[in-house]
Amino acid sequence: MGFVDCDTHVRETDASWAYLTEGQRSYRPATLRVMDQRAGIELSTGGSDRPLEFWVAQDLRTGRNDRSYPYDDAEEYYATFPAGSVILQDRDARVGWMDKAGVDVHVMYSTFWVGVEVDNPSAEVALAQS
Predict the structure, then answer these.
(1) Which of 33, 41, 43, 127 is the most buried (most CB within 10 A)?
(2) pTM of the model
(3) What are the pLDDT digits (tens) for 77-110?
């Protein structure tokens, strides 16, 4: 018998919002790229050359984790988490990782919702369903 991982996350990508209906598309989170206004250069994540990016929904901002990971060591990160497994682009890679780790069940949480509390019930339902 394996383990139940009750705190695993899915990192949203642009594809996560592809399931919004035509009437819900106005709720789609936008991407905000943070710039260092003092020097006119982009702030980067953890020493990498990628800019900090955030999802913005109803004036609420949360990290856009699909683009800011891995922080430092991409080789070690992808040796642990195969490409596509964390964003559920490659379900077989995710299940393979679970098997390797001895995990039978994942209770998955949307990383987006960790940092965003949408006030509009219609927007919340649309984004959660998508």
Answers:
(1) 127
(2) 0.70
(3) 777 888 788 888 898 998 998 898 899 998 888 8
Number of H helices, E strands in the chain: 5, 7
126: its two tokens: 């649309």
List all residues 6 or more positions away from 119 whose beta carbon is below 8 Å from its beta carbon: 58
| DSSP code string of 61-110 | EEE-HHHH--SS-HHHHHHHS-TTTTTTS-HHHHHHHHHHHTEEEEEEEE
Q: Of the candidates 96, 109, 104, which has an alpha carbon nearest to the alpha carbon of residue 10? A: 109
CA 45 to chain centre: 15
Identify whether the C-beta of residue 55 lies closer than 8 Å to the C-beta of residue 31. yes
**How far, rounded to the nearest angstrom, does the alpha carbon of residue 84 sit from its chain's CA centroid?**
12
Structural domain spans, the chain: 3-129
